[in-house]
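Hi, here's the filled form for the chain we discussed.

Project: internal
Contact: R.S.
Residues: 402
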Amino acid sequence: MKYFIVCGEASGDLHASHLITALRERDRKAQFRFFGGDLMAAAAGTRGKLLRHYKQLAYMGFVQVLLHARTILKGLQQCKAAIREWQPDCVILVDYPGFNLRIASYVKRRGICPVVYYIPPKIWAWKEHRIRAIRRYTDRVLSILPFEPYYYQDSHGFEVEYVGNPTYDEIADHLKSTGRDIADASTFGQNGRKAADIIALLPGSRRQEISGNLPTMLEALATLQDENVKRPFCFFIAAAPNIEDEVYERIIKRHAHGFRVDIWRKPTYDLLMTARAALVTSGTATLETAILDVPQVVCYHIMGGRFINWVQPYFLNCPFISLVNLIVGREIVPELVAADMNQEEVLERLREILDGDVREKMLADYAEMRSELGAVGAPEVAADSIMQLLGEHEPHKVGSIN
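And the returned structure, exactly as it came back:
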């Protein structure tokens, strides 16, 4: 079988790479072409061809998309041409809805092959109108969030399959490679320091996020350090792989007020395994932090302050921004957004999760969240579902692959 996969950012590259591995295990003649990244290329090996790197198309926000519109349009045309010429047996779309829904439309209108959407658009949060395109141009939607099938069914009468969450698998695989288990709770960190000393900062993966979130985080930590002379902390920033140290160093110099902050370039999972608490920008990082049992404060800076807080309910269809709260359906981790993301609030919430009842309640709620996610094995379940779909469309091909 020939699989054409499209993703547009680092997380999609990671998730798609595991899906490629699972498909290869099931289809000995699998071939892959993709818009993706280095992890996908490594997983596909000699059976795959990277046509365009996601870094050339990963633009977020209205202004960035507008400034790079020509590049994005060129990428769309290249992707369509590659699909038309190669005639794959299946197109698999991974998140990245602005781009991928256009690809889905093209493939279905031309009748090229089935379209699978792995990690669908978050229409429960915004742009609910995308359901029309999803309904019209996809043959199967595979979700990694346990509440999504209920939302799609209840709100739109549309069937979505939950396959499990690949972040759970990725953490489990990493811990296994280091000789630890998903349930392991590390008590000692770097150089023998106790985990109680370490606070992890995860300010985002994009420059704009980092420049907005990190200064306030550091201002709050400066006060925390002053308050705890007899309990010194170690502060580590989990660096994004595509962001240079100089970006962090400039912000540290301006906002750390003389206390030491180190840049962590090793796997973020290893940092979280040693941390007492974390300040985390909303996204998959909030889920990773919860799976690894680290109490957290979700921090998301947005220009506009109180105005943004006031208009947010009119533009955001969901009550929370963090995956942790969305999965459980209530606030179990504090969310500081726009005007609420300030030094005083960050400091107060951080104090609450270092010790005491608030911390213990959050850890108990994390256990509930992990039970909602279910077992590991999301890429394998997703691959089985794709193979089953292709068997319905072309059983003679699927029957000959093993």
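Let me know if anything looks off before we file it.
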